[in-house]
Amino acid sequence: MRSDTVNEPILTVKNLKTYFYTEDGVVKAVDGVDFEVYQGETLGIVGESGCGKSVTSLSVLRILDEKGKIVDGSIIFNGIDLTKIPEEQMRKIRGKDIAMIFQEPMVALNPVFTVGEQIVEAIVLHQKVDETTAKKMAVDLLRKVGIPEPEKRVDEYPHELSGGMRQRAMIAMALSCRPKILIADEPT
Ligand SMILES: Nc1ncnc2c1ncn2[C@@H]1O[C@H](COP(=O)(O)OP(=O)(O)O)[C@@H](O)[C@H]1O
Ligand SMILES: [Mg+2]
After folding, report:
1. What is the tally of structural domains in the chain?
2. Whole domain around residue 65: which residue ranges?
3. Which residue among 20, 28, 59 has the greatest number of ligand 1 atoms within 8 angstroms of its CB, and so is best to mutate?
4. What mean pLDDT, rounded, does the chain reach?
5. Residue 5: per-residue pLDDT
6. Which atom of ligand 1 is nearest to the CA of 65?
7. Residue 109 shares a structural domain with residue 80
8. SS3 content of the chain, % helix, strand, coil (to 5)
9. Cβ contacts of residue 129 below 8 Å, gap of 6+?
């Protein structure tokens, strides 16, 4: 699905090494990974359990736990190296430019807010729209990802949705900011 008109990769990962410094020693979770993603392209990363797929994704977004460190390599997005920028700048990229769908949607969805409230929050955070418009956008997104009766679902809490619907709500939330890159970590 490589576009002919765009020849610059949108994301270039080179020699990425992410290690965890645990009490039992150093876990070389990712040890020299290279890949490129082009606009309009879907890249699948395949490998056995524990080979570092999730840690690669978490590294791109820089949401590793405190034991995890990117020790080498570069992650070039839009010409900037994500491994080098301050956290504040990274925060603006996260969710807006690069979004992620997690394996377990209950972890990412907040149980005390409705699905709609969470999508509206994500929209308002990154786009200049008021809450009424954002709510309409949320309903449209829920419809787009195949949630039946989105006008009703938008006011429901995550626990009121089935697992599959929750996953779709997660995807809607990730898409709400129109990210340039969407990372999906084994979505069921
Ligand atoms: N928070 C962590 N602390 C220590 N080791 C970790 C942590 N997260 C992942 N690992 C280790 O990193 C390796 C890669 O894990 P992961 O990226 O989750 O694999 P997968 O390809 O199945 O997604 C595994 O050996 C895993 O045990
Ligand atoms: Mg994984």
Report:
1. 2
2. 9-90
3. 20
4. 92
5. 55
6. 1
7. no
8. 35, 25, 40
9. 123, 137
